[in-house]
Amino acid sequence: MRYARPNTPDAKVRYESRYDNFIGGEFVAPVKGQYFENPSPVTGQTFCEVARSSGEDIELALDAAHGAKDRWGKTPAAERARLLNKIADVMEAHLEELAVSETWDNGKPVRETLAADLPLAIDHFRYFAGCIRAEEGSLAELDEHTVSYHFKEPLGVVGQIIPWNFPLLMAAWKLAPALAAGNCVVLKPAEQTPATILLWAKLVGSILPPGVLNIVNGFGVEAGKPLAQSPRVAKVAFTGETTTGRLIMQYASENIIPVTLELGGKSPNLFFADILDHDDDFRSKALEGFAMFALNQGEVCTCPSRALIDKKIYGSFLELATERTKQIVQGDPLDTRTMIGAQASNDQLEKILAYIDIGKKEGARVRTGGERVRLGDGLEEGYYVAPTIFEGHNKMRIFQEEIFGPVVSVGSFDGFDDAIAQANDTLYGLGAGVWTRDVHTAFRAGRNIAAGRVWTNCYHLYPAHAAFGGYKQSGIGRETHRMMLNHYQQTKNLLVSYDPKPMGFF
Amino acid sequence: MAAAPPAIDATPAALALVAALSERHGPLMFHQSGGCCDGSAPMCYPAGEFKLGARDVLLGHVGGAPFYIGGDQYERWRHTRLTLDVVRGRGSGFSLEAPEGVRFLIRSDVCAAP
């Protein structure tokens, strides 16, 4: 089926023509009165205007957050959990609406937002609602009369800067643990994809006490920077790229506050020879695992964009994998049969095409794709790229840089040691994939690859309760697990003596 | 020190944007990003905004503004020659041009075998 485009008859989604900031529990116009146009990558056409905020708006949001933090931080965990569960319930009741909106704002296929983005985001609120109920401090009996208590306290007010590739899901990854732990949040969505989170705020905003959640829109340099620099935030969480990551660490160093960063990768996907031993479900699953580079148009920090294939099966595996890739259905993102939609923005499209160009210049061979796609039916100006397979070697730039498009660079390895050496020959260490029928190979490879997440005989699963985060230049911190609570908590130690007698020093 | 850093140059459109931005924001600097989302894109800041590290490499100047890249990334890019261009876009990160509705972009040529 095909969903009606937003703002047309029968559409699941009706956008307002203009969206303000969400501050202190209400929608507030930006202080300077400026707005920016928000286009849909599906058609390239603008569909709403969004507040173009400045440092003044960030200050208003921080005022609201600081006003709410004491009460929210002292709200019982059971009550905070109840409200997070309520958010999840409302999202579930509006799942289709939010999924269609996410597709319209980001360009990703609706089958993905229906099956992944929304269910995962909903579950994330429920997961952290559960975690905070089970959270405990600790105590240690140091001697007969002396007890050390450790209490977990919220940090207070935190800043969060969200990327555009999974706008609502990435917001959920950051908001759920922060709110569960008792923090108030000022959140800056990506300027490419602000719409769904504002639609979401209209639905769930009144569930939380005013000031607990604040959403300020605008450009990085005008709104994100004053948030990251503010001495009034106790922590900054950011997902993005390395230069901005370094800049955020520099700002944080001025205020001596912690950061968590997720900065991407160049994830290797290793295919060992025994995959082809049998023509069975597992072989088909491994081929699907190869084609996963096109999931979300390749706009995933863990895109398996370096496929390394055992040279014993290189030719035959790549032939099968190319066939599987050619079966990926590209088309209208609102059609539930579509597997790959539009890139999120024009500059993203241009960057991918520039990388396809450098790949060709470096001597890599295009096996399939390698070009922009012009779809019909009003989608001519949308940002579509054909799934692209390059053959080359690991020193090429297309093997070393995250293209953030549906582009995989394929090379071969000769034996286990070479496989691991090539897998680790990268600046990054966020994700990796290992495919083999041999448990010994699977375990050794997983432990030897320097990456925070090694999918073993699977790929692109993002369940709550499996820690996600980077080694090397891929960042700091672990999301999607209860350990993320630690990144939003302070530890208070009460060291208590129950001995009425003097210590005897003086 | 092995080979000299690859040259960085700029298209006329990029140079015009650099000139317009420096009129508004004063002296500028560039740092080439890596990683996800807006990674692999050049970032433009007011001069001195981004604190350089010991291993950042100066590739050259565009419109008078110094253009840097991280040392590790430089090792993987050194066989290519870079050209700063500009395209219509929505940008991100804290790069100065994003509110103008345009985005700096790097195009590359190969100048040695990788």
Automatic annotation (TrEMBL), chain A:
The keyword Oxidoreductase applies. This is Aldehyde dehydrogenase family protein. InterPro entries: Ald_DH/histidinol_DH, Ald_DH_C, Ald_DH_CS_CYS, Ald_DH_CS_GLU, Ald_DH_N, Aldehyde_DH_dom. Residues 34-493 form the Aldehyde dehydrogenase domain. The active site is at 262. Keywords: Oxidoreductase. PANTHER family: ALDEHYDE DEHYDROGENASE B-RELATED. It comes from the Bacteria. Belongs to the aldehyde dehydrogenase family. It comes from Nannocystis bainbridge.
TrEMBL record, chain B:
InterPro entries: DUF779 (IPR008497). This is DUF779 domain-containing protein. Pfam families: DUF779 (PF05610). It comes from the Bacteria.
